[in-house]
Amino acid sequence: MPCPTFPLASVRASYPALADGHAYLDGAAGTQTPQSVIDAISAAYRTGIGNVGGAFPASHRSDAIVAGCRAAVADLVGGHPDGVILGPNMTTLTYRLARAIAGPGDEVVLSRLDHDANVRPWTQIGATVRWAEVDPVTGELPVEQYADLIGARTRLVAVTAASNILGTRPDVPAIAELAHRAGALMYVDGVHATPHGPVDMRALGADFYATSAYKWSGPHIGAVVADPGLLETLGPDKLASSPDTVPERFETGTAAFADLAGVTAAVDHLAAMVPGEGTRRERLLASMSAAEEHELELFGALIEGLETLPHVTVYGKPARRTATAYFNVSGRTPREVAEHLAGLGVNVWNGHNYAWELTGALGIRDSGGAVRAGLVHYNDRSDVDRLLDGVARLR
């Protein structure tokens, strides 16, 4: 039975791409976009936009688009608009911030659970790296180890809010408490977590919270959110002629202004999935809570179905997770499984999915990784049933 508080039919109807009849279980790599986001991007181009800071109306429209996008992202994650750094993607922004935050003489604590975008930028700045290990059976990231990893020289702890292949939601607030007690900063990768439920970066203890709009129904835009006062203490590499204000000094080059309009529309779409009243932030919390309940209800059927198939190996059994399954089929490569399912109109991903350290810890990176099926708010029970039927045929 569908979640009674989540209007699935109307949500699905707002996504034109779903009309092709495919089961889009590839959401962990990027979601489809609703009509409202498509309309917002095309409207920005139709109306006319210019670069920011000009004296003419088209430039003023771009100024308003940027300000509106910062406010929308701040509402989504519980941050401050003046601390929203915008860029082409989370990876680019993390590389940029890593060089501004830490360097030789510092220590950074990383985790094997993370997507490589929250690993490699920190390993390449000359800092000393200390590793938090994953339990390869459960997929959990034990908090206890951080007490030994974090010390006086720790400048930063980088950790994901949810694994992009296992769905594991580690205890980020507990890790943040240990980090802050030692005077270290917390850089939280929220790319996979943000689409799957309400986000409160302050409750997480995140000094920096990274997210990507294309994972939650928006265009390919990334954002990192921090306290504006913290950003004032950092000096990133920048052009001498570019603004030195916060957050603009972290943003290189000219922004994709029409896409930023699409980001705001995506946040508004998420806030309106479940009808309600209140501020946009309040509506987002209610709507995303209902979406999470819907996803996890579907996921219960998905994971139970996979685990009952004798020719399927499912990786990870975390206590708290997003609706993301990672599995292999006996006698078939992950690519063969993905191609078989594609032939049945079911979209899934295969490989390491940039979880480089984690697939190494699981012992499957060099053999092709596994198959990933990820549910998002627009998926329904028929998507799940089609996946399970397709995998069952490979027995």
From TrEMBL:
Which residue intervals define the domain Aminotransferase class V in the entry?
24-387
The UniProt entry, under Gene3D superfamilies, shows: Aspartate Aminotransferase, domain 1, Type I PLP-dependent aspartate aminotransferase-like (Major domain)
What would be one Pfam family of this protein?
Aminotran_5
Q: Which InterPro entries match?
A: Aminotrans_V_dom, Cys_dSase-rel, PyrdxlP-dep_Trfase, PyrdxlP-dep_Trfase_major, PyrdxlP-dep_Trfase_small
Q: Which domain of life is it from?
A: Bacteria
- What name goes with this protein? Cysteine desulfurase-like protein
What species is given as this protein's source?
Nonomuraea zeae
State the taxonomy lineage: Bacteria, Bacillati, Actinomycetota, Actinomycetes, Streptosporangiales
